[in-house]
Structures are given as structure tokens and as C-alpha cells.
Write a structure and sequence with these properties.
Blueprint (H helix, E strand, L loop, with lengths): L15 E3 L2 E4 L2 E2 H8 L3 E5 H15 L4 E3 L6 H9 L3 E4 L2 H9 L7 E3 L6 H10 L3 E4 L2 H12 L6 E7 L21 E2 L4 H11 L4 E6 L10 H15 L5 E3 L17 H14 L5 E3 L4 H4 L3 E13 L3 E6 L8 H5 L6 E2 L9 E6 L8 E8 L8 E5 L19 E6 L2 E6 L4 H5 L5
Helix pairs in contact: 2-9, 8-9
The chain binds ligand LLP.
Ligand LLP binds next to α10.
């Protein structure tokens, strides 16, 4: 809000303000920006680890990190070290997890359109669980097993027909969806029967993911109630409620914790009489608040009587969420965190698109100048992972910070990288 100091709950756990300067993981953010350049993703490593540990203690050792939220080799290792499984939804994510040394049995393989090559890769490595999404996938697994591949342990992805209260693009559990087997018209039951009677698959349980950025946790309860009759009679020993818990991005939003979510899910599962072991697949709640993105302010354009545009050196290529979903963010002046935020400006990127907006109406202090550093908090999820190099803007570097020491985990893309796959 105008004039207020910056809302601290949107910052990583270790964030501190030292004489107006933002410090994360014991590192001065403006020093990091000088050292590594901008735009820069800065993750508080202890925050990431704490969320993984919370997830494991809340849901048990089957809980998986949804790697689509943010993945690199260091992240996959961290997740494994902290005892979570890792959910991958493509051959590419699987490759990174395996490259990081995650044991295949700790990998859960998702996807609504897994190719034969991807399934083959999963079976060759012996991934722990395949979450089967379609009839075509069942056919592909059966064909691969018939030609000698190992029999996989599978969960069936069900579509509970629940409208989670979130952005339309983030809903996955409505019947009109590309994901999973619907509970209607006997489809889910037929899928269970087919998998249970197939010698090519070991039926382990049921999975559902109703959507993402869900604040109304009663949606999870509704999904559990809808799924219960199918899970109870299926002989399932595992039941996963997927991910989706909402995270606060802007002032005024308040989110629940992973532990509270787990309590509510477990209560609903018990109430519904599901005996299977319950687990989940949080992505956003593990990584979102752990990171900030730091930019350098390049131009400030004042359009009298209309608005002020503050342009930074990144944009929709490192954070496409405002463009895709109209998502809101806040902005902080990295060297003047507690100054009253009396100016309202539009923070935009450097791409050739008018929609290249990072913060539509950002409250910033008057001290913000060209050359200054600006950070947007809560950018740890679906920023780097959904980034692009549109306009050949280089993908940012990523650092993990801990006890005053930065660790570069993803290098900034170089101009050379931009032509590395071009054929001359
Ligand atoms: N499990 C499955 C099967 C999923 O599809 C997803 C997310 C998750 C778990 C993790 O959900 P989370 O806890 O992160 O909400 N790009 C969008 C989010 C798309 C989520 C896709 N699936 C965004 O930026 O908001």
C-alpha cells in the first residue's frame, strides 16, 4: 500500500534489512547483483531445505517435489538430500533428475502425452512410479513390456471433476480437461479394471491434481470425496492429492502452510474412509517465496498525467506469469527497502511487446533511479522454469545463498549459447 514499508512475509525466510539494504542468506543483494549481473534469481537455500523438510514431515517419505516449478541440477540434488521424491513430467525433467544423481526409484513420472521414447526411458532406468494418464499410454506401456521392458509400478491419474478456485489455465481437475481419467461414465473404473488385470503394470494407487495456486482448501476435500469410492474399492495402497496449494504473491494475500494443508488433506481422507497412504506433490509452496529476481533499472519514462514506466533488463522472458495469467507481484528497491513506497509506477521489461509487464501498479520509493536495483519477490516458482529467450534476451543466472556465501547453480546464458544449435 502507498507509503507502507515492504511486506516482509513475501520475502525468503532468511531475508533481513540492514540499513535499508536487502540481505538474503547473509548476502547483500546489491553485492550479488554486482557480482553476478542482472537479471538474477537469488534463492535462499535454507528456505528451500526447510520447505522440503516440512513437506516430508507433513506427508511422509512419498511426498514428491513437482520439479516443473523450478529445476536445475542443484535443485534436484537438494530435494533428494532433504528426503523428497521428485515429480517429472517430461523426458527432459527426468534427464535432469537422473543427471543430478536422484535414484530412479525416487522419481515419479507424470504427463498427459508421454511418448513411447519417454516411457521407454523411464522403464529402462526403473523410475519408481509412472502416473498413467490415458488409454494410449496404457497401450504404449503394454507394448513396451511385451517387447521385454520391466513392469512398472503405476498410479492412475483421475480427474475428479472439481472446479478449483483459481485461474482457468491453472485448473486441471474439471471434467473438460486434457488430464486424467474422468470419474464420469464409468471411465475411471474401467481404467482401474484394465490396469489391475494387466500383467504389464503393477497397480499401486490413484493420483489427482485439481489445479494450482488454490487458496480455498475445501476444493481438495471435495476432490477427495469424489475420488473416495474409486480409491476405496480399487485395492490402492497409495493416494496422491497432487500439488496446488496457493502462495501469497502480493500484499494482503495470506497463504496456509504445507503442514496445515497436510492436516486438512489427511482429515478429509480419513473422513472419506480412504485407507491408502496419502501423499502430495507440492511445487510452488516449496520454491516460490524462496527466491527474488533482481533487475537493473534501465529507463524511467514519465508520461505526464498518465503513468511512469520503469523499465528493467528482463521481463516476460524471465517471468511470463503476469502476461499469461495476469499475476500480480510487488517490487522492492534493493538498497532502500524500508523507504515509504509513495510512487506508483508500472514496471516493464525490455521485450518488444506492450504486454511485457512485470508489475502493473508497483509501489516504489521516490529514491528509485536509473541504474538502481529492483527486486520482485516470490519469483521462485514458474519463473525460471517457464522462461524463454524471446528477443534473444539471455536467460538469467541463478544463485543459491546460504550463511553469507553465494553458490552459482545456473550460469547466465551467453551470446554464444544463442547460436550454439544453429547450423551455419
Ligand atoms: N502435480 C501435478 C500433476 C501438476 O501438474 C502440478 C502443477 C503440480 C503437482 C504442482 O503444483 P503446485 O504445487 O506448484 O501448484 N505455470 C503455472 C502453474 C502450472 C502448474 C502445473 N502443474 C503458474 O505459473 O502458476
Amino acid at each position: 500500500m502507498n507509503g507502507d514499508v515492504f511486506p516482509r512475509h513475501l520475502l525468503p525466510d532468511s531475508a533481513k534489512v540492514d540499513e535499508g539494504r536487502l540481505v538474503i542468506g547473509g548476502c547483500d543483494v546489491s553485492d550479488l547483483a554486482h557480482e553476478f549481473g542482472t537479471p538474477l534469481f537469488i534463492y535462499d537455500e535454507e528456505h528451500l531445505r526447510a520447505r522440503c523438510r516440512e513437506a516430508v514431515s507433513a506427508f511422509g517419505p512419498d511426498v514428491a517435489y513437482a520439479s516443473k516449478a523450478f529445476l536445475c541440477t542443484a535443485m534436484a540434488r537438494l530435494v533428494h538430500e532433504e528426503g523428497m521424491k521428485i515429480d517429472v513430467s517430461t523426458g527432459g525433467e527426468m534427464y535432469v533428475a537422473l543427471h543430478a544423481g536422484v535414484p530412479p526409484e525416487r522419481i515419479v513420472f507424470h504427463g498427459n502425452n508421454k511418448s513411447t521414447a519417454e516411457i521407454e526411458m523411464a522403464l529402462e532406468h526403473g523410475v519408481g512410479r509412472i502416473v498413467v494418464d490415458s488409454w494410449d499410454e496404457i497401450d504404449r506401456i503394454e507394448a513396451l513390456v511385451a517387447s521385454g521392458a520391466t513392469v512398472p509400478a503405476v498410479l492412475l491419474r483421475m480427474n475428479p471433476g472439481i472446479e478449483a478456485h483459481t485461474h482457468e489455465y491453472l485448473q486441471t481437475g474439471v471434467t473438460d480437461s486434457k488430464f486424467g481419467f474422468p470419474l464420469t461414465d464409468g471411465v475411471a473404473q474401467a481404467a482401474i479394471d484394465r490396469v489391475r488385470s494387466s500383467p504389464s503394470m503393477e497397480f499401486i494407487g490413484v493420483h489427482a491434481h485439481i489445479g494450482s495456486q488454490v487458496f480455498d482448501v475445501s476444493s481438495f476435500g471435495k476432490a477427495i470425496d469424489a475420488l473416495a469410492p474409486f480409491v476405496k474399492d480399487s485395492g490402492a495402497t497409495e493416494f496422491s492429492i497432487g500439488g496446488g496449494l496457493g502462495v501469497a504473491y502480493v500484499e494482503g494475500e495470506k497463504s496456509g502452510t504445507i503442514s496445515e494443508w497436510a492436516d486438512q488433506v489427511r482429515e478429509a481422507v480419513q473422513r472419506a474412509g480412504i485407507g491408502a497412504t496419502v501423499s502430495a506433490e507440492p511445487g510452488r509452496t516449496i520454491v516460490a517465496t524462496a527466491a527474488v529476481t533482481v533487475y537493473t533499472v534501465g529507463t524511467i519514462k514519465r508520461v505526464p498525467g498518465i503513468r511512469t514506466y520503469v523499465a528493467v533488463d528482463g521481463g516476460m522472458s524471465d517471468n511470463p506469469r503476469p502476461v499469461l495469467y495476469g499475476s500480480g507481484y510487488e517490487a522492492i528497491s534493493v538498497t532502500d527497502v524500508d523507504a515509504p513506497r509513495t510512487e506508483t509506477v508500472r514496471i516493464v521489461g525490455k521485450h518488444c511487446e506492450s504486454g511485457d509487464i512485470i508489475v502493473r501498479d508497483a509501489h516504489v520509493p521516490e529514491s528509485l533511479v536509473v541504474g538502481g536495483f529492483l527486486a520482485t519477490p516470490v519469483t521462485g516458482a514458474y519463473g525460471h522454469s517457464m522462461g524463454s529467450n524471446y528477443n534473444k534476451v539471455l536467460r538469467p543466472a541463478v544463485v543459491f545463498v546460504h550463511s553469507g556465501v553465494p553458490r552459482l547453480v545456473v550460469e547466465r546464458e551467453s551470446y554464444r549459447d544463442l547460436v550454439a544449435r544453429d547450423v551455419d
